[in-house]
């Protein structure tokens, strides 16, 4: 046990907001359900602009190993952690190189319930 069950929800939210990394979380339907302050600063998109929307509707794009730009959520993992270097297009049109680290989120039964993604510039 990690002890996370002993941490209250306010503390968990504060952790996600203050973590020094750009983080977003999606559910199994591909909807963005969390967007922290750091990713707002990195991308220029506010949480209000992206929460509840599907990844495919997000104008934030990446380049995947030479292929055309795709949705940022196109390569979120189903089974294990995935890391890759890519570029994102900010709301103002500028391009920023980032390292993407994606990991599935599982419930207490081990069922996949979404994914968390961290972007490091």
From TrEMBL:
GO BP term, example: regulation of DNA-templated transcription
Annotated PAS domain residues: 8-52
Stored SMART domains: PAS (SM00091)
Name of the protein in question: PAS domain S-box protein
Organism whose genome encodes this protein: Anaerohalosphaera lusitana
């Amino acid at each position: 046990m990690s002890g996370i069950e002993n941490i209250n929800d306010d503390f968990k939210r504060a952790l996600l907001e203050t973590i020094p990394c750009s983080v977003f979380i999606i559910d199994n339907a591909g909807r963005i359900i969390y967007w922290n302050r750091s990713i707002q600063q990195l991308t220029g998109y506010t949480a209000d602009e992206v929460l509840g929307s599907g990844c495919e509707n997000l104008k934030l794009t990446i380049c995947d190993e030479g292929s055309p730009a795709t949705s940022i959520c196109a390569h979120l993992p189903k089974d294990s952690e995935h890391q890759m270097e890519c570029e994102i297009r900010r709301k103002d049109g500028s391009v920023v190189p980032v390292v993407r680290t994606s990991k599935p989120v599982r419930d207490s039964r081990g069922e996949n319930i979404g994914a968390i993604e961290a972007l490091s510039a």
